[in-house]
Write a structure and sequence with these properties.
Layout (H helix, E strand, L loop, with lengths): L13 E5 L3 H9 L4 E5 L4 H14 L3 H22 L9 E8 L6 E4 L5 H8 L3 E2 L11 E3 L1 H7 L3 E6 L4 H9 L2 H4 L2 H4 L3 E3 L14 H12 L9 H13 L3 H8 L9
Helix pairs in contact: 2-3, 3-9, 4-9
Amino acid sequence: QTGVEPPAATLPDAAIARATMADKLGKRLEGLALKVIYLDLETPDKFKSDVATLGKFFQDEARAKQVAAFYQGRVDRIAQAVADMKEDQKPRVLLLYYNDRDGQVAFNVAPMSYIQTFMVQAGGGRAAWKDAQLGQGWTKVNLEQIAAWDADQIYIVAYTKSAGDVVKQLKADPQWQALRAAKQNKLYAFPADYYSWDQADSRWILGFTWLAAKMNPDRFPGLDMEKEIKTFYSELYQLDDAAYQKNIKPVLKGDLP
């Protein structure tokens, strides 16, 4: 364990960091005379730009263009499917991040700049929390506020435990049973494999596709989510069907078909 100041002999040529870490960590890395590549990843446009940056750094711009095209094609497909929806046709959606750090249960909503909010709004939903007073990061909210938002659909994400287990607990809670979404059986666990699909990493396109189809299933007739997952891992990670069956399918979690 060497912290951010490793021995000179072990220094890499460059470091890759999230843009949000520029002040906290980036300056220290730059102080080691490292080239620091900052990635944002929080919107499709920024993700595309970040992929291009990585393509240049790794001297494989052709592959970067292929990856960007893969994402753009799926973003465009979703945009076209919901393009003619009027605001009052879109469900009011609440996406909540659950954590129980130190034994204290907390629910949080994302700021408008995060990819989770983008997924809801660009996927044909109305973010129920958009007019709340939000911070720079996740903002804690209580059950009273959750009930006041009265969302048509609620999606739970969790990073340190199964979102499916959390949803089971909530469905058994009388207070949550009183919510509109729970009454209409529209309280969902956001999918995950090794990581949750709502986050700003490569899987966000799977989460976006799943969420858009879940919010408005009539807009995505015939969508085969397993095919989407297989294609994702095949085209981006070169995993064949045998590798998918062995390494990915057994760890899939959440409200998948």
